[in-house]
Amino acid sequence: MGFEEFCEILEKKAKKIGIVLNVKQIKNFFDYYLLLIEWNEKMNLTAITEVNDVILKHFIDSLTICKYIPQNAKIIDVGTGAGFPGIPIKIYREDTQITLLDSLNKRVLFLQEVINKLDLKNIEAIHGRAEEVARNNKYREKFDVVTSRAVANMSTLTEYMIPFIKIDGLCIMMKGSDYKEELEKSQRAINLLGAELKNVEEFILPDSDINRSVILIDKVKSTPKQYPRKAGMPSKNPIS
User: Fold this and answer.
1) Residues 23-32: tens digit of each pLDDT
2) Residue ranges of the alpha helices (H) in the chain?
3) Quick one: CA torsion of 46, 181, 206, 85, rounded to 10 degrees?
């Protein structure tokens, strides 16, 4: 697929979620797609490689949460993988300051390549486990927004995410349609970590039958110092 066709598809789908992209932003998405496919041949970044699917399931899906993000927000994207949703947010929202966190160094090298090639500003990619990075004073309770997309079950995910946000900050979890049982089981963890459920928004990705949900959680008080627990504990023994 050439740039013009890519441009037409991305522009049309973005408008359906209320987003208007300029030529520079569309070119950045195109270059991001090319890098994703190139690096995916060397390492496993994504199982989704067909261009229409990448546009819808990665780029558009990531952009759906932009409306929840305040102006000039400082964001950390936990378990970012190939950069979703952090890099699409950065491409569209230049006002944001973003930290991409991933536990696999090879993925961080890919993310750094994307940042360099697209000449993105005020964005960094760091290598580390959420449980360890969240105990570092440089990152603990320093962010306005924390995001993640399909990283783990919600009881585990809350322990990865909530320690990063400031009081009055926002935790945004991106999930599919089957979130309700997970959410119910994670209520104690949410409260214990200093947060409370704000809202859940359900929607369907444009021109598809793909159901998505966004779980919004407010940070209302400081996270107790014993959280997150040491690496591996949140996944092996989720708060219940």
Assistant:
1) 999 999 999 9
2) 3-16, 23-40, 51-53, 61-63, 86-92, 105-117, 130-133, 154-161, 180-192, 233-236
3) -40
